[in-house]
Amino acid sequence: MFKVLQKSVGPASLSLLTFRVYAAPKKDSPHKHSMKVDELSLYSVPEGQSKYMEEPRTQLEESISQLRHHCEPYTNWCQETYSQTKPKMQSLVQWGLDSYEYLQNAPPGFFPRLGVIGFAGLVGLLFTRGSKIKKLVYPPGFMGLAASIYYPQQAITFIQVSGEKLYDWGLRGYIAVEDLWKENFQKPGNVKSSPGNK
Q1: Within 10 Å of residue 194's Cβ, how many Cβ atoms?
Q2: Using the 8-state DSSP alphabet, how is residue 29 labeled?
């Protein structure tokens, strides 16, 4: 048993010791020249020049490339349209959520007023038989009249703003007609002589 312990303890205790080893060439051996890195088989460089060659495209890759090329204007148009309509849709969704929240906590008497305004629009539709212009004017007019009874302050503000916009549109139309009149009928060659200018 002592022999087994001695054999097992000896190599284990040697592994804990640290010591330095110095290598020196033998004096009587002939001097050999050292090898270069290129001469080692591990670091050998192939003699030929490597060249990158692109693999030929398959028929499937060609057809996919052509499809992508043809669809590119449409995808760009879709991306532009999406980027333009996204803020509008977000504001519309926000308006819907705000309206839903308002209707959940509506002030007292709101729904009866809303019913009367809607009924006024239906009465306006009944009076519009036969004319398309009446269909455009009567229902909003009747609804506006009913709404102005319940919300007079907002109706006055709406009429003021609408009146200013209508005046602005009328003024622009007048200027456009005046410009057309001057361009077409008052050119130097188009002046007609009146009976008094003979």
Answers
A1: 7
A2: S
List C-alpha distances in Å: 109 to 14, 123, 127, 144: 99, 21, 28, 18
34, 40 contact by CB (below 8 A): no
What is the pTM (predicted TM-score) of this model?
0.40
Using one digit for the tens of pLDDT, what is the confidence trace for 101-146? 988 888 888 888 888 888 888 888 888 887 788 888 888 888 888 8
CA angle 31, 37, 40 (to 5 degrees): 85
| Whole-number Å distance between alpha carbons of 7 and 1 | 10
* CA dist., res. 178 & res. 111, Å (int): 49
Question: Residue 77 — very low, low, confident or very high, per pLDDT cuts 50/70/90?
Answer: very high
Question: How much is the average pLDDT of 91-106?
Answer: 90
**Cα separation, 9 vs 14, whole angstroms:** 9
* Burial state string for 80-95 with b = 16 or more CB within 10 A and e = fewer than 16: eeeeeeeeeeeeeeee
